């Protein structure tokens, strides 16, 4: 039974591998074109392309799935179903109609919560206690199709978008290989989503990482985690960009203006969890203090806050501004 797989980044690779290992007939894999990357700006293949070629699969890399010739090529494969996982393109109805059993979309969120392009950062930013993976039957809307299966995982206070993606990718793979055969056999009744419970996770942009120190420490702490590894939460000091990669929110008000670098009191240091004991200084926010654990100057490597502080004389008392 022919299956076409659509996917692009690292997150989609476990799903493709699981389908291959489960014995599904992957007729072709469609992914994004190679893109310039690195300092040399040389073309780099998407991770899914590399994984597909390693398994001897046929790979297609059209600029999009809107061209009639590409759609005809896809239809000629006569897939029974298609599986999309982080493909990176919205599929039009003529593509959705190709496979008799439709397109199963693997989405890293508990739909209808966090529909859209960046569901993993969105779950952290929202302060959710849990997130998960949904396999849905794709329709013409943005992640609005009926649900075929879901699995949930808790979000740790120390999860970043990167670590959460690492947790969700194998979960997505397992749920896909469990759901697909049951769907093909007609054993699953699609469950419609409740639009009244929907939220939207828009596409991330670099400017989203700019820290506004007038916000509460808890909000900035979530921002630090949600935007790690990209675009990173950043601020500026004396015209130089500073990325904050790890932090922890603390209660208390020093009376300083938001953005002021402050020492941590013994009581605040004691209040830090074991994983955050490397915090060496704080920043006053609109509500509470953000204890900084790992920081990086532009063009330098990331450093523990204590090492950073030793190389920045008279840093305490200075003011950080919105990046």
Relevant terms:
seven-stranded antiparallel beta sheet, alpha/beta, Methionyl-tRNA Fmet Formyltransferase, Chain A, domain 2, Rossmann fold, 18 strands, 323 residues, 26% helix
Structure overview:
The chain has 323 residues and is an alpha/beta fold. It folds into two domains: 2-201, 3-Layer(aba) Sandwich (Rossmann fold); 206-322, Methionyl-tRNA Fmet Formyltransferase, Chain A, domain 2 (Roll). It has nine helices and 18 strands. The chain has helices spanning 13-21, 47-54, 68-76, 93-96, 119-125, 161-184, 217-226, 266-271, 305-310, and strands at residues 2-7, 25-30, 35-37, 42-44, 59-60, 81-85, 103-107, 115-116, 130-137, 147-154, 200-201, 233-237, 240-250, 261-262, 281-284, 289-297, 303-304, 321-322. Strands 5-2-1-6-7-9-10 form a seven-stranded mixed beta sheet. Strands 12, 13, 14, 15, 16, 17 and 18 form a seven-stranded antiparallel beta sheet that branches. Strands 3-4 form a two-stranded antiparallel sheet. A hairpin with a 4-residue loop joins strand 15 (281-284) and strand 16 (289-297). Helix 1 (13-21) runs parallel beside helix 6 (161-184) and helix 5 runs antiparallel to helix 7. It is elongated and about 70 Å long. The mean pLDDT is 96.
């Amino acid at each position: 039974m022919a299956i076409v797989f659509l996917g692009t980044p690292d997150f989609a690779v476990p799903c493709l591998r699981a389908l291959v290992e489960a014995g599904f007939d992957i007729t072709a894999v469609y992914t994004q074109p190679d893109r310039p990357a690195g300092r040399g700006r040389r073309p780099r293949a998407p991770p899914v392309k590399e994984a597909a070629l390693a398994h001897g699969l046929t790979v297609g890399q059209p600029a999009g799935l809107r061209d009639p010739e590409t759609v005809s090529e896809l239809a000629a494969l006569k897939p029974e179903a298609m599986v999309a996982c982080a493909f990176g393109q919205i599929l039009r109805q003529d593509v959705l109609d190709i496979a008799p059993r439709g397109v199963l979309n693997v989405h890293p969120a508990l739909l209808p919560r966090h529909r859209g392009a960046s569901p993993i950062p969105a779950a952290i930013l929202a302060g959710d206690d849990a997130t998960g993976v949904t396999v849905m039957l794709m329709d013409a809307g943005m992640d609005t199709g009926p649900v075929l299966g879901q699995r949930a995982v808790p979000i740790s206070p120390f999860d970043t978008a990167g670590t959460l993606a690492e947790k969700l990718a194998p979960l997505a793979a397992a749920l896909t290989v469990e759901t697909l055969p049951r769907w093909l056999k007609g054993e699953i009744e699609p469950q419609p989503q409740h639009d009244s419970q929907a939220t939207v996770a828009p596409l991330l942009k670099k400017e989203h990482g700019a820290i506004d120190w007038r916000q509460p420490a808890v909000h900035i702490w979530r921002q630090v985690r949600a935007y790690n590894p990209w675009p990173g939460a950043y601020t500026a000091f004396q015209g130089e960009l500073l990325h904050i990669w790890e932090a922890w929110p603390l209660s208390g008000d020093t009376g300083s203006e938001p953005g002021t670098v402050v020492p941590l009191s013994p009581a605040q240091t004691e209040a830090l969890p074991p994983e955050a004991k490397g915090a060496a200084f704080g920043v006053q926010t609109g509500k509470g203090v953000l204890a900084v654990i790992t920081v990086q100057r532009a063009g330098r490597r990331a450093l523990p806050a204590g090492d950073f502080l030793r190389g920045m004389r008279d840093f305490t008392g200075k003011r950080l501004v919105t990046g």
